[in-house]
Amino acid sequence: MDAHLGTPMGTHKDMKQNRPRWKTYLMELAALGVLFVGRASFADHYHVPSGSMEPTLQVRDHLMVDKRAYGLRVPLTHVWLTESEPRRGDVIVFDSPIDGKVMVKRLVGLPGDRIAFEGESLHINGQPVAQELTPDGARLELLPGALHPIHPEPYQGPDMDELEIPPRHYLVLGDHRGNSADSRVWGLLPRENLLGRVVAVLYSPRDGISGSERWWIPMSTDEGRGVDARLSR
Description:
This protein is an alpha+beta fold. The protein has helices at about 10-20, 20-40, 185; strands spanning about 45, 60-65, 90-95, 100-110, 115-120, 120-125, 125-130, 130-135, 140-145, 145-150, 160-165, 170-175, 190, 195-205, 215-220. Strand 5 and strand 6 (about 120-125) form a beta hairpin. GO terms for molecular function: signal peptidase activity.
């Protein structure tokens, strides 16, 4: 018997064309759903719109945000399914309690803390948080558990009288405190408004760095005991 080598009965393209249109739409809808849930619940990226977090974050920096850091939420809601506690010093993304816009600040006050701010220095539970100047002129704040840069201007008002933070609320400040509308202006941040923790600057167009230096600048090194030099430039 002679063997007959013919063409395949149908190519991948033919099979795709023969697939019912409703199945194609359903598959595309499912893919969009997976993408939506992933961005809403696990990880996302944002860009920085203002200079309130300088020098740590600068305008047009692109941020990688871990949206699992504080638990899982029902997408597009403030309803938490699971919860994990933030840490002092985290750079967080949240919905503004004033107008719902997405904001980014540094979390400095936890429930039970007594916090005050006196123009130049932050006070936690009655103790001033130390600062130091580096040889290249950068100003660092030795926030317990989260050494980080702040803007070098000495006066960073407005002041804030001491207050005690109630349960499920946090106090947030910008690293450029003289140019930041934060908890000193609009009050404490409810836990329900948290969106996630900034893990790194994914890409930065800031001056003073170039090439591969612009990619992936972590928020902290050595478990908070160090600062990536790129964040203080």
